[in-house]
Amino acid sequence: MVLTIFLLLLLGVPISMLVVGTSYLEDCPVEPKIPIYLLVGGAFGFIFLCIVLWQQKRARDYMLLDESEAQSDLEDDFVMTRSYRFTEYILFLFLLVWFSLGNYWLFSVWRPNYTQPLHEPRNWCSRHLYLFTFYQLLTCYSLFGLAVIGFLGSLAAYVCGLRRK
């Protein structure tokens, strides 16, 4: 249940990426791929999180069924579950590559002009767009770091539990 609530809150990230990417689509001529990164990453991130949430719901529903209903539903949904898993893995790989590209596009124009200069009209990027993208990437790194710390903590607790037995 905690994971589901966390995932629902996390849906705010791709939605905000979509909104900012759409709002500032033409406001970064120095690197026009930055708003595209937000749009595509937001759309596919939203789809990915919806698939994960759907699987969470289905797993919770299976736990509520009695054994005979669960067995018949399990046989019927085997193909669908594999399809969802495959789609989830492909989306994850795409988002990982897209995240790497977003890092490259953003940091290749480190600290651009935030106002349009008269002598170089294409050498600027919206301050709001640039900083939003920067903090979005920073948030992703932070969440990844927390996941690694959580995994290592769980692993340490598991190993300590084995040693006590």
From TrEMBL:
The keyword Nuclease does not apply. The chain crosses the membrane at residues 35-54, 89-110, 130-160. Keywords: Membrane, Signal, Transmembrane, Transmembrane helix. InterPro entries: TMEM272. Residues 1-18 form the signal peptide. This is Transmembrane protein 272. The lineage of its organism: Eukaryota, Metazoa, Spiralia, Lophotrochozoa, Mollusca.
